[in-house]
Amino acid sequence: MPFSKNVLLFGFLLFFCSFSVNAQDNYTINGVVKDSLSGETLIGVTLKFTAASQSGTSTNAYGFYSYKLSPGEYNLSVSYIGYRSINRKISINSDLRLDLNMVPDNILEEIVISSEKRNDNIVNAQMGVAKINLSEIRNVPVLFGERDVLKTLQLLPGIKSAGEGNSGFYVRGGSTDQNLILLDEAPVYNASHLLGFFSTFNSDAIKDVSVFKGGMPAQYGGRLSSVLDIRMNDGNKKEFTAEGGIGLISSRLKVEGPLIKDKSSFMISGRRTYADAFLALSKDSSINKNTLYFYDLNAKVNYQIDDKNTLYLSGYFGRDELGLSETFGFDWGNATSTLRWNHLFSNRLFSNTSLIYSNYNYVIENFLEENNFKVNSSIRDMNLKQDFQLALNNSHNVRFGLDLIHHTIAPGNITASATSSVNEVTIEKRKGNEIAAYISDEWEVNDKFNLVYGLRASSFLLFGPGVFPTLDKDGITTSSKTYTSGQLVKSYLNLEPRISASYQLNEFSSLKSSFTRNTQNLHLMSNSTASSPTDLYIMSSNNVKPEIADQIALGYFRNFNNDNYEFSTELYFKQMQNQIDYRSGTDLRGNTNVESDLLFGDGRAFGIELFLKKRFGKLNGWVGYTLSKTERKFNDIDLGKWFNAKQDRTHDLSLVGIYKATERWTFSSTFVFNTGNAVTFPAGKYQLNNKTVYYYPERNSDRMPNYHRLDLSATLEGKPGKKLQSSWSFGIYNLYNRKNAYSIDFRDDPDNPTRTQAVRTTLFGIIPSITWNFKF
Asked: What is the DSSP code string of 131-151?
């Protein structure tokens, strides 16, 4: 979707001319809002200042707020879901630093998915965004009874599960690699444990979760479809606490407390499964020597130097181990770390400087002497970010910054011993830099009309050393060139405009619209229908262009019954360029020139999302429904006709109910239904050299069977007033034992080879679970 220079010039003029400066002498009130019990900063707290008129602001991702007021007396109202409101009178006759502590309200009923304030979904210009409240996520039943952020996200409209037990997800027609997943600003490339049955995110260690399905703010970039921004707990600055849980398949423990009371704290959280311990009990030597487990560790420390400077250091390390006796070994995992400095230059200019490291790698080993081998693959990032937030005046909140990322990809070398029948393969590493600058503005035009608009300029540079081939449209190498270390191979520059607008029809309803352009320079190579630990990444190059997506969306938002009920409908259309597929027979493993097997084409996705939620009371929950279409088009596939993408699902329905029956008992259930994935089944077969060869028609013209499932859970809280707080969580996954198809394979009928059998594989039937949770 091209953009003229005149349109961009108009955008810049709009940006710089929109700022209005009040000639009246105003003073600035600013500060940080924290949890009174733990000292944790609170994100998205609403502050309202009432005098002759009412106005307000909210805290940013680090708990900081800033607002300008004319001299006078004001009633300050501070509110945040799950906390007791603060109401006090303040007098403004000079700049004022006002830090606030909010008291948790254990009586207030919450829902898992919630906004920052009761009518934020109406007044906020941002579209396609949802927040997850971690304090109640334990009530949503999931596989094995584990609290799981990603599984809960998949119950929202527009976000679809990548498959049974899989933590991968599709957002508005995008593929799994088109989601930017951040943990304390560090990218996580494979967010799953045990081949997708668990996510890498231990809910005990998480403070805040936001997901953007469209209209992403300009500070985010690098992926086409969504942003999942996860923030870890800072640690309790008031007192030492410990909490955890013991379940049938895993256990977890979190410890936190002050290093220097009210100034510095730490948090350490760990989790491990112990399926391998049950395997070791077997008397069968082919079983008791197998390994199957994962572990992960989250840690964070912070130190408040003074009122203007705070340092944070956080890290995550997780690893999966899978081994079959002494024949095969497979392990993979993520490691991230973030060093962050928050600095207040003035009472209106806030700065965040981050140095970020991320590494994902896997190792596959075959130990059999005659064909032993070892495969290593990794993707490693070093990232420097500088973000500024300027409260220019009460109508404009400006954000701007720079983002520099250095990528190193080792796509998968194969090593073997001298006696092995497997040939060694060495594939060159690839190095590249992503450099981005952005500026955006939250503009409150008037009481009814709000805008969030900005521009992101992203550049990608591919560097040597290495040999870089040039390919024609058939994937044939026409020339090759050798580049030395640090020599520029190819560069791309893209401008990514972003704009979201809301118009408030009345106190209870609003209309919203958005346009977003995103680009992506890291591309996932996968032959499977869902994400896998062995998936490979490649960079944009002289043969592979950046992926580009343009998304427009329209929405209607309505609240009922004093904001207790929320309804929304969003329509979207997404157009994608430079999408990637594979030529027939492509093998990604040990492929020294994988680019020659790639096909490039277009994509499109469109749909409507409906969401109805009851937010407060003893009984709450939501209904989410998506009607959508996702297609791809490649010149070398199906004669260049549009075909269903593998993630295309016509219908996607989720029902969630949470009932607080008594002070101690909470019951919940979820029901999900979706159209089966688009797949290609054989339409015929023939014999060649006494082997059956299947004939396949048009790409993804068939469907897997429809998927549906009902889950139940119950939580029993311990008796209140005790130092050791505990609860029991009981769950049943797939209550009516639905045999949902994980895969369908075709083979000759052994009794009649002229006939074909379709063999369905299912992963899970009915699965009960029980977990004991504790905190002291």
From this structure: EE-GGGGGGS--GGG---HHH
Domain ranges of the chain: 24-107, 129-775
Shortest CA distance to 604 belongs to which of 564, 557, 642? 642
The pTM for the full model equals 0.88
Could you tell me which of 432, 422, 433, 427 has the C-alpha nearest to residue 411? Answer: 427
Query: How do beta strands 96-97 and 27-35 pair?
Result: parallel
Nearest to 193 by CA among 364, 333, 378: 333
User: Count of CB atoms within 10 A of residue 198's CB?
Assistant: 28
Question: Would you call 740 helix, strand, or coil by DSSP?
Answer: coil
Q: What is the pLDDT of residues 466-516, one digit of tens each?
A: 999 999 888 888 999 999 999 999 999 999 999 999 999 988 899 999 999
Concatenated DSSP letters of 256-275? EEEEETTTEEEEEEEEEE-H
CA distance 334 to 354: 19
Residue 521 main-chain phi, psi, to 5 deg:
-115, 0
CATH number of 129-775: 2.40.170.20
Task: For residue 285, report the phi and psi dihedrals to the nearest 5 degrees.
Answer: -65, -25
Q: Which residue is associated with the tokens 């500060």? A: 31
Question: What's the token pair of residue 279?
Answer: 């395997």
Contacting residues for 251 by C-beta, under 8 A, at least 6 apart: 244, 245, 271, 272, 274
How many whole angstroms separate alpha carbon 250 and alpha carbon 772? 11
- Give how far the C-alpha of residue 736 lies from the chain's centroid of Cα atoms, to the nearest Å: 30
Tell me how far the alpha carbon of residue 513 is from its chain's centroid. 23
Among residues 201, 140, 190, 133, which one has the least CA distance to residue 162? 190
- The residues that bridge with 525 in the sheet, in sequence order, are 536
How far is residue 467 from each of residues 473, 524, 697, measured CA to CA in Å?
A: 19, 21, 38
The torsion angles phi and psi of 383, rounded to 5 degrees, stand at: -135, 130
pLDDT digits (tens, 9 = 90+) for 57-112: 888 888 889 888 888 889 898 988 778 889 989 988 888 999 999 888 754 344 34
Pick the CATH number of 24-107 from 2.60.40.1120, 2.30.42.10, 2.60.40.1930, 1.10.630.10: 2.60.40.1120
Distance (Å, whole) CA 27 – CA 96? 8
| Tokens at 107, concatenated | 């009586």
